[in-house]
Amino acid sequence: MDALIFWFGAEARGPFGTEEQVLLQQADARRKKVLIEELQQEADERAEAAVEEDAETDASNDDDEDTGNPDFNDLTSGRGGVTEDLLWRKDAIDDHDVSRHDDSPPIEDQPAFVDVVKRIMKNKEAFALIREEALRGDLTQVVARFWKKEKHPAWSSTAREELRRCVTAIGRHKRQAKCLRTEVDLALLKRKDADYKASVSRVAPSETADRRMDRLEDFWDDFRSCEKRGYMQETDAVSNTLQEVRTLSYMTGQSDAFWERCKKSGSRAGSRSRHGSSRALSRAPPDTPRTNALFSLPELSGVGLGLQTPRAQTRNSGVDSRLQTPRVQTSNLGVDSRLRTPRVQTSKSDADRGKSAGLMGSTFNSGMSMLPPIADLKVTSMLEHSMLPDLKTQAASSNTNSNTSLASWSSCFSDSVCPFMTPRSKYLRVCNQLMLRPLPVPFVTGHSTSFKASGLLLTDNDLMPVIAMMQEGLNTDEVDLTGNTLLTDLGLVPFLQELCLSGRHLVRISLSCCRLAGQGTLDVLTDSLSDIRNGLVNLQVLDLSDVPLPRASSLALANAIGGHPALRDVNLSRTASLSGACVASIMACRELGNLDLSWNAIGSSAFSILGERLSGLKRLQVLSLAGCSHQSAGMGNNAIEYLMEWLPKNKSLSKLDISVNHIDHRGALILEDALEKHRKLTELAVSENPLGVLGARSILRLLGRNSCGLRYLAWSGCQHGIVNLDQDSSQCFQFTNPSGRYELDLSRPYHRSLLRMLYKSCERFGARIDATFNVSPLSGIPYHHAKLDDDGVWQVMTHGKFTVHFHVSFIGMAGVSEWNFGTFIEHNWFQTRFAPAHHKITTMLCNWRKSRTQPDHQRLVLDVFAKDFRLTFPQIEEMCSYCVKSTIMEVLKRIFHCIVGGLTEKYLSIYLLPAASDYVKIYSSLRNVLDFNPDHPSSHYVLDLGNNADHAVAEQLLLLNRWEIQIEQKLNRYDTSEYGNRSRLRNIRYCDRPLPCRDILNWNLPTEDKLDFIYISGKRPNFDDKPLDVIAFSSFLKTLMRTGIQVEMLLSVLRRVSVFIYLNTLQLRELLGLFENDSSRAKCMFIFFFRVVDIQNEKVFRGRFENAEEYRKLLSQLGFCVYFPFLQPENLSFTFNFKYYDQRLAAAILIQLSYKEGESNLRDIDFKDPDGKPWLNEVNGKAFIPRSWAEASKMPETGIFRCRYVCAPEDRIYSLRKDYFEGYGHWSLPAGPRDIMWWSTLSEAPDDVLELLEFMIDKYPDLQKPFRVIDGAGGNGQITKKEFRDGVEKMGCKKFRGPNAEKRIDSVFRFLDPGGEGTISKREWLVLEQLWNELTLSFQEFVRFLGREFNWVVDCLDFAWDKLDRDQSGSVSLDEWQSIVREEYQYFGPCKVVFEFLDQDDEGTISKEEFSKLKRVLDDLPEYRRQQFRRNGLKSA
Fold it and tell me: β-strand 1319-1321 against 1182-1184: which pairing, if any?
């Protein structure tokens, strides 16, 4: 079995590297071929040996048995466990050549094998873990052998069955992991293909080089024909323009020589143009960027001035390229090009043209274009004498009367353009007139009806030739002016006016980033959209992003959009702050399918209106609202929360973008509530929102739900989120445990969603609403429970303040036993933990793989998985498959507790670690979750809540606490908790301070800092639970004695195997002898206290605690009622702090017992208030206890009460003590008083009593004979003080020799006469029998320890003496005795009393002859006799 796990563990990792191949290449080929056969044979042999009934065969095969326990068979892969496997694998890979083949010699035959072993030994931490796991495996073997012999059904499986189950599980997991990896790869390919297709669809198909050359060849031929006909300007215009530009040289920083070169180049170019030699330009590459020599000047009195080099000059003059601004060619959205029949152009009258002639005509006739504004007054005198026209009055006239703009623009070419020219010829003719270089776009060349000029940096002049073309009746279906930031109202207004005249076929218009567009442009556009008869009635796409909208025109534009019959795509991002009226008008557009309002300031009312109108839009698919909401402060509501609450009403939305909206965990919960059943929404963008772990939990649960159609999630930059310290932080929704107290203000969207999530929790758990909700109104408004509407949404109240106590009882636990905690935790874990749908886990793993370069984001995902999800081993393996070493460690460290399955799955997950050193690093983080066993939860826990594994343990313990509270209420048990709230948690400290609230049920578990508490379960052993027999317990102790690990590791091993062990009090007492100090003994006793089947005899092992302070500490840890000595409280001193409920209850029990058995039994009574002042009244010199203190509820709640209880045997009331024992201790006591081991500890008796008892043990076989000797022949059964003195001398006891002999004998007499009658009855005398048994048991434990140490050989005492007498002096002093016994033998039982028993002459030393008196004790031990029978060939009885 060990080798199988090792071999298959490497195979199960899957194909992600050569690591496994190297391991297999280095392994022995023969070993691989015969491995299964050897293991099968070994399993058969172990199965046959496990069912042997002969005790001798069982004991002789201690190290050869297989576990056979279904819960423990794969706890360790070898005797050294997981750590050893990882070390061997890693070291074997590092030390051997990777090129070796399968037929190479075995690793064991090579010299490097020794080096591997040495390096393993040097890794101290790993080697310590190997020894710890080996010890756990050996102890498991012992326990398995015992339960198999007892034929326990849980341990009845054979080794063959366990082998088959393990192989099947590993193979199944490996197949699932490979299938899952294939699904993830396929999903990533599909996503990549979809992204590629989407990017291709957004880009217009590019022309081929040949087709572009053919199209532009005709275009430039027409352009040259215009030059030959003499329509081009002469070079004088160039000279004049350059002279004008030269006047501005001081503002541009250019030298005079530079402008001279430009003039000469212009003259040469003009000369070439007169001879018609411009072929170089006509055949220029089609992709050559158009340039413009623009000179930015300061602003002068707010008047816009401009200057532009004529296009003809720029083309022919050879001006330096540094003067030219390159035009950035951007990709255009493509629309199918199609030519349409030109409309008939109706000519305007000369009078109309004259009316519109003015500024613009003169501007274009001068060949000048607009420049950016100027503000420097120093250049005014220069500009007054320049050729630039006065544009101040032109701008004013253009703004005052935009309706005349088209005529003004057309006046520049109306007199000179032939009315029978084609649109392209007309365009070229106007370009020649204005000296502009033509734009060879498909619309201008006549190959498309879509005017796409995005990113060309057009100016107002560049639109004039296009306007001339459009006057010829061209049907334009798309206009794209995106990114032309130099266009103003001077060019856009006439362009849009002319466009509207022929705009019935226009489908798309984009003015994105035309930031200089003003009121005139918006007015024309608004009028065109509003005119449903002659306007842009067929417009479907409107893009005004990054175009400032004045408040005066935003509402009119919104009304026009809302009333348009065909608009489907509207982009108003980065325009202005939108009011509620604007949003309402926009949402009135019924055909709207894509709406982008990103980066606009939208208030709460506008968001609320937007949400309400969503339900009426049946075609809306894409909604973008990035950067629209302000940040909420404290208890304020985020504006976008009012929208998210309405999302369930819309059934058509498929993509939602709400990035950068300051959405925190509250908004994320609203989003989860709203989109939980939205099947159409497939894409969600919440990037750059402060979600944090709490908000990310809601988002990932939403992504994983089968009822939600979400498939693609964009949420980068969401890992940082802070939960404000307000009321909302104390009542966050916990998916796994929603029970708690909530104060809700239903006017807030977050509180309404929180209430709806509670109703959904009722649905999830199948609970009744009236049984889970307890609502108290705070504002006087009565509460009405929510109801489901037709859309499946819980309709909660929208106003009022209420306190909601929500408690979900444990549903679906009908078939679970009350005390079967393991099954309960497993069922509840599967019921409350979130399991993603199969097709959704693929989506999550795709996102995980894409974020492998974002460690912060991956840690966020792991923290979310740790809190709410349950995962399988194939999913864990897929997460680790494409990760670096550090990420694999983070995965296992953070979500190891989320793995579904048993120890096989957990072992395979750990085996994903590359090396044993990684396992050692994360083992400390996983120790608590590995040690935790819900079937035996009582322990002391120190948990780091920032560690996900520890946090999961804390959650399970709190859940178990609620379950036990419910059981106790059902069984009507007495409340024995620390604070009277039935909680099983004690001594709770958070951040090294007491818990803020006493009731742990009202405390929300934090996610950081240290939590320290003790869990005391109410579960007790059953009647039929069997402790380990003598042989099994002897093997158990022998295994523990062989180990050399640290005490903490030893206790950890015992804690993990204690759930399968039951002990009796004698066995626990002997086990405690293996620990040196009281603190370690207390921890060991804490582990096995609730595994003791005869707890009524607990005083037997109580004697191991010699320190009274340690015993009081145990009382505080276990509980004063749980560990109260109900049956044997004699001779014990008690200290009670009335601050705690259970201590007041224990004091009341003790007082009640004294009232029944004798008020004088309470002695040394003392009670002081918190200030240390005595409080009780004294009567006859004795403190008087009020009668009311017999009830815990009537006791004071402060103060310290001390007393001692003494009771004579004849005064005991066993029935009363039994009732207290069963009622308050929750133990079962079927035995009678004769079945109880009445006991006394050595610390209860004075030293003189022990001296007398040691003498009698050595001289008499029992206590009856010395009583008769002291009472004398024919005695009356009563011993007086005189008779006792004479009897001690008559027995020949010399223990009391000295001047104080009589005084010491009197102290023994007073001890035996607790009632003070002056006589010792036979029953009082037999109290010494309890001490007799204690001393005898101490001797037996010491001898039994020596027998196990020397393997029960015949002369084991001789070997022990030789080791004790180091100096061969023939005697051993007390110091030598204690030093050797404790330091070398590691025996920490009561060894001093053994020495005093052997030292009969009281000389302070023992000889070999005195030591040999232990032979009598050795012969009486059943283990020794059994070994002797075996050696002699006899069969044991």
Answer: unpaired
